[in-house]
Structure formats: C-alpha cells, structure tokens
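Lay summary

Proteins are chains of building blocks that fold into shapes. Our project writes down both the chain and a compact code for its shape. Here are two examples, one after the other.
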Amino acid sequence: MECKCIWIGADALGWDGMSMKNIAVFLSIGFMACVLPAAQSVAKVEPQIRDELPPAFEHFYGIYLNGIKVGWMQSRFSHVKNQASFQVNLEASVAGMGQVSKIRLDETRKYDIQNGRLEELQFVQASSTGAVRILGQREGTQMKMRISAGGQTQEKRVSTQESLWDALALYRFREQPAVGQTEQGQRFDASMLRNMQVDYRVESIEKRIFAGIESKAIKVSAKYKDMGIIETSWLDQEGKVLETQVGGFFVARLEPEAQAKRLDYVQDLLVSAVVKPPKPIRHSVVLNNLELLMDGFGGNLPPASERQNVKAENGKVRLKLRRDSPIQGKLESFPGTKMKEFLEATPFVQSNNKALVKTAHQVIGKTKNIHEIVHKLTRFVYEHVEDEYVPAYSNALEVLNSRRGDCTEHSVLFVALARAIGLPARVAVGVAYWPPGKGFGWHAWSEVYAQGRWISVDPTWNQAIADATHIKLAGGGPAEQARIVMLLGQLRIDEMSF
C-alpha cells in the first residue's frame, strides 16, 4: 500500500509507493523483530542463557494490509554450538493503479550465545528497480556496516547494544505472564543505521480465536518511542507469536505454510486507502488555500509551518493550508554546520555521487536564481522518472539509473539533486488531493530551504510550488516518516472550505 503517481491526459494523479515503503521500513525494524524481539541489555546476558533459548522453529505468517492479503512471511530460529540465528523472509505483492508490484525483504541476525552480542547482520530488499543490501559485522564494540544501493557501496561503523537477551523478550513473557509486566530493550535497525528503544508491556491475558480455535493469549504492546509506533502482539503459552497488528492497517497472522503463501485475489489497495472529503475538489492543482477539520490523529498533531496552520479543536484538528509564495533571490551558501543535515549525502540520498552531481549541474546550467533552479530540477525529475508503482525503500542513485518509480522515487531524486548543488532539501510525507479517487491519497514530495523558509515542491506532479492540498504528516528520515503508519485507515475529514 503505497501511493502511486500516474497521469491521465494533463491531470496529475496522486498515489505513490510511500505507504508501503513505510510499512516495508517498519517490517525491517518492527515485525521482523516482533517474531522474537527485544528487552534489557547486554549486561544481563549470562552463560546460562543457552538453557533459555527456544527450540528451533519455522513459522509462516500471512501479511494483510487494510484487510487485504498482500503476502507472506517466514520466520526461522536455530542455534548451533555458540551461535544463535534469527531469520525472516518476506514477500509481498501489492496492486495499485492497474499494476502489481512485488517486494522481497530478507534479514538474518546472528548472536554469540556466550556473551550475547549481535555479531552479524544481513538485510536485503529487492524490487523491480533494484536491490538494497546491508551487511554488518562485529568489530570490537561497533558494527562495521557495508551499505550497497544504486550500484554504490559505502561503509560506516555504528555502535549498538542490541543483544541476544533483547531478542528473547516476547519469548520470556510466556513464563509467568501478568498484566502490567514490562520489559525495555534495544533494537538496531540496519536500514536506518540507528538504535531504537522498545518498551514492552503485557496489556491483558485473554481468550481469542486463532485459526478457528479459541486459545489463551498474552497480549503485549511494543512501543517504538523514536518512531511513535505501537505494535500489538498476541502470544500463546509457549511464547509463539500468533498475530501482530500495527495501527488499524497492518496485520501479520500465523498460518500454515500453504495458506500463508496463497493469494486468492488481488485488490487495488491504493484506491481503498483514500481519505474522502465531504465533496470533491475541482481544479485542486491551482488551489491556493484550503481549510479542513480532521479527525483520527489520536492526539498527535501534524507539524505546523508557514503554509500549514495546525490547531486542536474539541479532540479534532483544524488545518489551514496555503500554497507557498514564490521564491526570491539567488542560491545561498550555508557555512559551518547550518543546514548540514539537509545538505549532506546519506547511503540512500547519494548527493555526492559523481553521476548525480554532474546531472544536477547539467540541469541547472549557469542559473543562479533560486526560483529558476527549483523549476528546472522539478521539470527534470518529472520528465526523467517514468511513473511506476514500486513498493520498496527508495534511493536516489537507483532512481537516476532505472528512471522508474512513484512519488517517493521522484522526491528522493529531487532531494539528492538539490543537495548536490548546495540547496538544502528534504522529503515530506502525508496526503494530497487525488482527483480520480475524489479524495486525499498518501503521497510524498520534497521541501527546499531558501530565503529563511521551507518551500514545498512536488516533482511528481511538476509543481515547483506544491498546491494547497498537500497535508504534511511527517518529514525527516525513515524513522520520522514511519510515524504515519499509525494513521493509515484512521483519518477522516469532517469539514472542508476553500
């Protein structure tokens, strides 16, 4: 379930792979961990942990988004001599805008049973446009990471405290479960190259029907504080995960292998997730002002800015949106650390890559005027990238080479090109009005910083200044963007005026 952006005639149509990308990112850090995730710290790992390990297993799960079966996942655990290994393989096929796109995620984590340390990590994401490979190997107190994306490989060293004890948290809840029981742990996410704190709590012990059989289940919540995501799992008395839910949209359910791998029908998931307004919006692409009263944010207000006024109102949120004013002046320089975060290259925004730098300078030529620069970059990305629904995490170099992608591919390529010429830029995610769906589709666009303010730019729709229907829900890197997972299927529009 991602937004997919296509065009019919002269009208821009909004859906993109953004939502499934966030699900994919979350899968790599969330449910992939939830099969046997985290608690406590390395210091608590003792030699007798060998006696606490579960027996070797292989489980299969059906993956559902918004009630639609989209794929399956295989979870395996084994231990040989002094090494314990957790492995997850996931395959999903998501229909959107008349095409079916596939994604595969594979992750393996290996721990030293004697000291509990995470020794090796492998993460691979593959889709129609290419693959991202991340390999981590323990070197002292750090993990040496090799990140390959878009044909370029980078190395980084990252400290991590994740341990085998962390990986056994849910399994330990089976011992003497009690409502209110808690654990706290570390989870190292390879795709974000960062450590995250996870807080676990037993919410209830209840009877639920799984596979047609009533079972006693331990309900456990897992809060990923850095991402604002809450994951709920049900375990049986042996510590096996029976089902996991994220928000009201994502479900992974234990099933026999044949059933998990069976996809009986394909439904357009993108259309089913549109947020409907009270009435259609005509000529949305030229809209300069829009006011909405929305519900479903769960107390988490969207970010406010000059173009997006946000106000809590009787448990709901009133949004006053306007199109940014035109950009004035010339390209600035930002000495020192100012705007460093939005100018530097990353493993997935490879703005220092020679091909990307060369392309950016060819596109803008000798132009110094910031307004013209943004127009030229917007037009180039819009024309260079052929619209294709891609349910995978994006990287700029791969988009430049493959020339395919949806709104996240458009956005990340624009951001990389902008940074390559010294223009601060970042990705924004949220919803924007999609005329064919007569509602707001999940979407991604870009933002550039100029003349002391951030300006919204939509290269997917060839809008050098994005229209007023773009509602920003999150920004920053993958961890921040993943916050919107909790909003999928929850948002409603009660009032609307222009």
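And here is the second example, written the same way.
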Amino acid sequence: MANKISKNSQNLADRIHSAAIHLLRKLRRQDANSGLNAPRLSALSVIVFAGPVTLGDLAQAEQVRPPTMSRIVDALAEHRLVTKRKNAKDGRSTRIAATQAGRNLLMRARERRVRALAQQIGALDAAERAALQTAADILKRMIDAI
C-alpha cells in the first residue's frame, strides 16, 4: 500500500522543486564566464568531486550515453582540464581525472555562483536569513535520507 501524501505536502514539494530549478537556472548565468558550456562544466564537476572516474560512470552520473560523454571528455582534455589514462586494473576502460587547471576553473565557477547567491541572501533581513538557514538544514537532512 502506497503512503498517502497530503495535498499540502504535495503543494510544498511542487514549490520547492520549482524554486530549486529556477534558482539553479539563474545561478548558471554565472557559468558563462567559465568558458565552458553547461554539459562540460557539469561533467567537470563530477570529475573534480568524485575523483578519477571511468567514462561509463561519468556518463551514468550525467545521464547521457557513453558516446556523448566521450565527446565531452575529449573537449575537456583538449582544453587540458582533464587527463585520460587507461585503467591499470582493466585496460579496456579509461580513468578520467581533473587537472589542476580543471579544478581551478571549476572552483572559480562555483565561487561566482556562490557569490551571486550570497549577495541575494545578504539583502534579506535577519529573520528571513534565519528561516533560510533552517530550511537549508532541513533540505540537507531530506537529501541525505533519499
């Protein structure tokens, strides 16, 4: 038997979902300064934060097919943002790792997005910032539970 979800919970979930998507879209505007398109920057983020990964794992994480991810990785490698090395344990697969230049580029892009968000948060009054802090804590707990 499926859990019954109240109308209020459904409406709140819809509002949070919409807000999260709109927030990320607006913050992505900062990414234009990175020189990479969204798919390349997203793949680079996975590589930086997940450590060396295989092409298959990266494609799965980014929800694209391996040939698509191969083109993305090749472009990142051309810009010397990642390296590709044959997997020592399995010569059929390749491990992709971020270079220092790749990590630096990603961290600068992240800093721009965080700064843009921090400016908006700074414009809130103390009560709104406190409410947002509580909401962020709750969202983190919910994400950890999924």
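What can we say about the second shape? Residues 37-145 form a domain with the Arc Repressor Mutant, subunit A fold (CATH 1.10.10.10).
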